[in-house]
C-alpha cells in the first residue's frame, strides 16, 4: 500500500470514528429511555390497580394500626415521585421486593421459573422458523397457486384462532383421546424429585447428564405446548417470508441471474433468500420475544411452571410485587431482543449504516 493510500484510509477512519461513537451513544440513550419508560409504566400500573399491597401482606382482618405500619415500611405514605425514585433504585439493583405468595425475593422466584419459559419459547421459535421459512418461500415462488392459498390459510388460522381454545382442543385430542403426549406439566412426578437440574433448563441438563429416560419424558411434556407456540410463530414467519421473497424475486438481479442461465433453485435459495434473510432475522427475533412475553395463556393451560404461570398465580393472589417484577423482566427482555435485532440488522445490511 502506497503512502497516499495509507493517508486516505487514515482520514476515512477518522471520519468514521465520530459516526460510530454517535451511533453507540444513540443506542445507549435509546435503551436507557426505553427502560425508564418501562419502569414508569409498571410503577403506575401498580399504583392504579385497586389492590392495596399492605392488605395483601397482612390480610383484610388486620387492625388499622398494623396496616398503617406496613404501609410506612413499604413507603406507600410517601409522595408519588419519591416512591418512583425508590422504585427505580431498587429495580436497578434487581430488588423487586418479596413475594407474598412464596415469601421469597421476587428475583429469586423469577430466576427459578424463567428458564422454563425460555425453553418453551425456544422450542416454539425453532419449530416456527424451520417450517415457516420454507412455507413462505414456497408461497412466494408459487404465487397465486393452490400451494400459496394453503400457506396463507394456515397463517390466517394461526392469527385468528384463540390460543387458549386451540390449547384445550389439542389436550382433548392428543392427551385425553390419543394418549400421544404426557399430561400437563413439565416433568413426570416420578422424575421430579430424582432428577437434579443445574442450569434450570431441564432438557439441556438431562442431555448433558445422559438421562435419556428423563429426556424422553421431558420431550413428551414439551412437545404439545411447543408445537402450539410454534404454530403461531409459523403463521407470522411464513407470512413475512412470503412478503420479503416477493420483493426480492421482483428485483433486477434476479432477472440478470436468470439471463445468465442459473438454475431456479440456486436463484431462489442462494440469491433471493440470502437477501431476504437480513430482515427475516429481525422477524424471527421479534417472534421469539413475542413468545417469551405472550406464553401466559399457554403456560396456564398446560400447567407449565414458567414465568407466565407465575405471574398468573401471583395476580390471582394479589401479589403485586411478583406481578410487576415479572412484567418488568419480560418487558426488559423484549426491549433487549428488539434492540439487539435492530443492531444485528444494521450489522448485516451495510445500507442501513448511513
UniProtKB/TrEMBL annotation:
The keyword Transmembrane helix applies. The chain crosses the membrane at residues 24-45, 120-141, 153-176, 218-237, 276-302, 322-345. It is a multi-pass membrane protein. It comes from the Bacteria. GO terms for cellular component: plasma membrane. InterPro entries: BPD_transp_1_N, MetI-like, MetI-like_sf. Keywords: Cell membrane, Membrane, Transmembrane, Transmembrane helix, Transport. It is found in: Cell membrane. Residues 114-345 form the ABC transmembrane type-1 domain. GO terms for molecular function: dipeptide transmembrane transporter activity. Belongs to the binding-protein-dependent transport system permease family. This is Peptide/nickel transport system permease protein. It comes from Rhizobium soli.
Amino acid at each position: 500500500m502506497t503512502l497516499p493510500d495509507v493517508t486516505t484510509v487514515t482520514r476515512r477512519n477518522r471520519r468514521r470514528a465520530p459516526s460510530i461513537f454517535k451511533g453507540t451513544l444513540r443506542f445507549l440513550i435509546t435503551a436507557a429511555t426505553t427502560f425508564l419508560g418501562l419502569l414508569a409504566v409498571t410503577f403506575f400500573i401498580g399504583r392504579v390497580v385497586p389492590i392495596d399491597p399492605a392488605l395483601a401482606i397482612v390480610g383484610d382482618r388486620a387492625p388499622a394500626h398494623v396496616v398503617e405500619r406496613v404501609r410506612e415500611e413499604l413507603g406507600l405514605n410517601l409522595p408519588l415521585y419519591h416512591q418512583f425514585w425508590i422504585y427505580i433504585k431498587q429495580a436497578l439493583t434487581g430488588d423487586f421486593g418479596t413475594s407474598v405468595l412464596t415469601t421469597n425475593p421476587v428475583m429469586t422466584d423469577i430466576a427459578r421459573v424463567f428458564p422454563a419459559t425460555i425453553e418453551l419459547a425456544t422450542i416454539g421459535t425453532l419449530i416456527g422458523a424451520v417450517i415457516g421459512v420454507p412455507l413462505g418461500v414456497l408461497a412466494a415462488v408459487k404465487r397465486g397457486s393452490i400451494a400459496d392459498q394453503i400457506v396463507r390459510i394456515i397463517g390466517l388460522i394461526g392469527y385468528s384462532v384463540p390460543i387458549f381454545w386451540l390449547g384445550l382442543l389439542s389436550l382433548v385430542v392428543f392427551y385425553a383421546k390419543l394418549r400421544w403426549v404426557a399430561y400437563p406439566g413439565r416433568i413426570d412426578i416420578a422424575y421430579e424429585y430424582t432428577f437434579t437440574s443445574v442450569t434450570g433448563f431441564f432438557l439441556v441438563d438431562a442431555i448433558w447428564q445422559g438421562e435419556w429416560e428423563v429426556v424422553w419424558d421431558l420431550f413428551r411434556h414439551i412437545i404439545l405446548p411447543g408445537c402450539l407456540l410454534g404454530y403461531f410463530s409459523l403463521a407470522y414467519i411464513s407470512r413475512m417470508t412470503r412478503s420479503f421473497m416477493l420483493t426480492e424475486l421482483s428485483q433486477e438481479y434476479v432477472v440478470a441471474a436468470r439471463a445468465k442461465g442459473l438454475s431456479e433453485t440456486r436463484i431462489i435459495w442462494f440469491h433471493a433468500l440470502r437477501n431476504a434473510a437480513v430482515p427475516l432475522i429481525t422477524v424471527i427475533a421479534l417472534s421469539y420475544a413475542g413468545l417469551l412475553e405472550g406464553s401466559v395463556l399457554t403456560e396456564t393451560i398446560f400447567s407449565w411452571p414458567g414465568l407466565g404461570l407465575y405471574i398468573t398465580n401471583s395476580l390471582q393472589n394479589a401479589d403485586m410485587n411478583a406481578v410487576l417484577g415479572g412484567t418488568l423482566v419480560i418487558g426488559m427482555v423484549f426491549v433487549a431482543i428488539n434492540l439487539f435485532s435492530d443492531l444485528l440488522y444494521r450489522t448485516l445490511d451495510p445500507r442501513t449504516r448511513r
